[in-house]
Design brief:
Elements lengths: L7 E5 L10 E3 L11 E5 L15 E3 L4 E6 L2 E4 L4 E3 L2 H5 L6 E5 L11 E9 L16 E12 L6 E3 L7 E3 L5 E6 L2 E4 L4 E2 L4 E5 L2 E4 L8 E3 L2 E5 L10 E4 L3 E5 L4 E4 L1 E4 L2 E4 L5 E4 L8 E3 L2 E2 L8
Parallel strand pairs: 1-3, 2-4, 7-8, 8-9, 9-10, 10-12, 10-13, 11-14, 12-15, 13-16, 14-17, 16-18, 17-19, 18-20, 19-21, 20-23, 21-24, 22-25, 23-26, 24-27
Antiparallel strand pairs: 4-5, 5-6
Length: 296
């Protein structure tokens, strides 16, 4: 929804979420959202908590979380803007935090809870989640995590277990991946509310211990190690989503559904859907294809 040289308003009567959907707003510029380019809801407008609406609403142009007011959706103003672990340590449970170009390697002050987190990468040396130190946990209470790598480079979520775990608790983990590749290390992501990944980039999964179902609403999940995602999950791949093996790894899920793509870049990948347990369902109308490798 872009206004060109004028202004435009999209007015919805109601707005309801289904099937782990994501509303990716795309104004011509972030400053125009809620100004010359408005998206409003007449009945049942999104609830604002700690300055933001649920993180399945996001500005895809700026990769920012959004709020809602008299002029509809608008980009949020972050309560904490920083570059180091100390900025996270100084935040609190109601804080919306954006961190740019940091090589985290210090304590976040023990087990820490903040509301939502955006990480921004504009160079090729960003080792983002070396967040914290061993034994610490960073909890994202809204489930919102936006990874902005559109300016180049990638984000490496800790290469070892000496860093903090990321905990989404019982809330759905809503992870936006934009631009390049974000790689998870051995420090786990944990939670019981499920995981939804969306955006234009890729997330390399190594130690995703989240349960409650995995949905690829957009972007790509790349499997970085065998069963890099908890096997007690139903996998849903929407039409814009891709699940990709990057080596001779194997992955098992309780069930498979959706219309997306499953592929591999190297030979020897094994994909197992364990529908016989009665816990998952399999109704997949997407494409399973060999990329430069093969899938068994």
């Amino acid at each position: 929804l872009q206004a060109g040289s004028g202004s435009v308003t999209f007015a919805a009567n109601t707005l309801n979420r289904s099937n782990n959907g994501v509303l990716l707003l795309s104004p011509s510029a972030g400053a125009n959202l809620g100004s010359t380019e408005k998206v409003t809801v007449a009945s049942g407008a999104p609830t604002v908590t700690n300055g933001i609406v649920a993180p399945y609403y996001i500005d895809g142009t700026t990769r920012n979380f959004v709020t809602y007011g008299a002029n509809g959706f608008q980009d949020i103003t972050y309560s904490v803007v920083g570059t180091t672990d100390t900025d996270i340590a100084n935040a609190n449970a109601s804080s919306t935090v954006v961190i740019s170009n940091s090589t985290f390697n210090t304590s976040i002050g023990g087990n820490k809870a903040i509301y939502a987190l955006k990480l921004v990468q504009t160079n090729n040396t960003f080792n983002a989640n070396a967040i914290g130190v061993s034994g610490e946990t960073l909890t994202l209470l809204s489930g919102g995590l936006s990874l902005d790598m559109t300016a180049g480079g990638g984000i490496n979520f800790s290469s070892d277990t000496t860093r903090a775990s990321i905990n989404f608790g019982t809330t759905e983990a809503m992870v936006g991946v934009f631009g390049s590749n974000a790689a998870l290390g051995s420090a786990p992501w944990i939670g019981t509310g499920g995981l939804t990944v969306y955006g234009t980039g890729s997330l390399q999964a190594t130690n995703v211990s989240i349960t409650g179902g995995v949905t690829i609403a957009g972007a790509t999940i790349r499997l970085g190690g065998s069963n890099g995602i908890n096997t007690n999950n139903q996998l849903t791949i929407d039409k814009a989503g891709t699940f990709s093996f990057i080596g001779s790894n194997s992955q098992q899920f309780l069930g498979l559904s959706g219309e997306g793509l499953i592929t591999n870049s190297l030979n020897g990948a094994t994909f197992v859907v364990d529908g016989l347990t009665g816990m998952g369902t399999t109704s997949f109308s997407g494409l399973i294809q060999n990329g430069s490798g093969t899938i068994a």
